[in-house]
Amino acid sequence: MSMIKLGKFDDAKKLLQRLHGTNDGVHILFKDLLAANEASKSAKGSEKQIMSHTHNRPYRLTAIALPLFQQLTGVNVMVLYAPYLFQIVGFQTSAALTYTAIFGAVNVAASIIGIISVSQGYRRFFLIAGGVQLFVGQIMLGILVWIKLGGSDVYDYLIIATSCICVSGFAWSWGPLGWIFLSSEDDMLLLYPLEGRSCC
């Protein structure tokens, strides 16, 4: 946008083509940027006024809520402190490390599935389905830790299974999608109106 404000239209168009890798859609985006530049010249008010418009509130809320809820799922804590958490629940050190390796393998596999599926579309469905899976998995895990079935093998397998349900639900949905929504141009066009994009 700054190149357009400075009148460097050819440079701006070349930069857009280089960023996109193709000419597809660059002309439309360039026209939108030119229109936004003209609108900003005639607009009265600051960025604060632009962001205070009521039609921008859902976009701002989404831009804040996605990364916030992504962190509040608690899966990052589960992944980072998995061996320690498994020891607190009652596993021996060697078993905790083994279960952490299984936990990590599920995380990697679900992340690969998430990366592939996100590029296919249906992002809203994946966010909702992953959120439901996370919710159910964390409720089940909380109940298991609360009732403490003891040191039986069934209890161990249930703890690992519910932990894997939680981490896989995060890895194939909220993990990648929380950042893709905020960085993908297609989603950014939906999240942020052109006049408020620089403010967000």
TrEMBL record:
Family membership noted in the UniProt record: Belongs to the major facilitator superfamily. Sugar transporter (TC 2.A.1.1) family.
Protein's recorded name: Major facilitator superfamily (MFS) profile domain-containing protein
Q: Where in the cell is it found?
A: Membrane
- Single GO MF descriptor: symporter activity
This protein's major location comes to membrane
Q: Does the keyword Transport apply?
A: yes
Entry's transmembrane regions: 61-84, 96-118, 125-147, 159-182
Q: Which domain of life is it from?
A: Eukaryota
List keywords of the entry alphabetically: Membrane, Sugar transport, Symport, Transmembrane, Transmembrane helix, Transport
Q: Does the keyword Transmembrane apply?
A: yes
Record's GO cellular component terms: membrane
Q: How does it sit in the membrane?
A: Multi-pass membrane protein
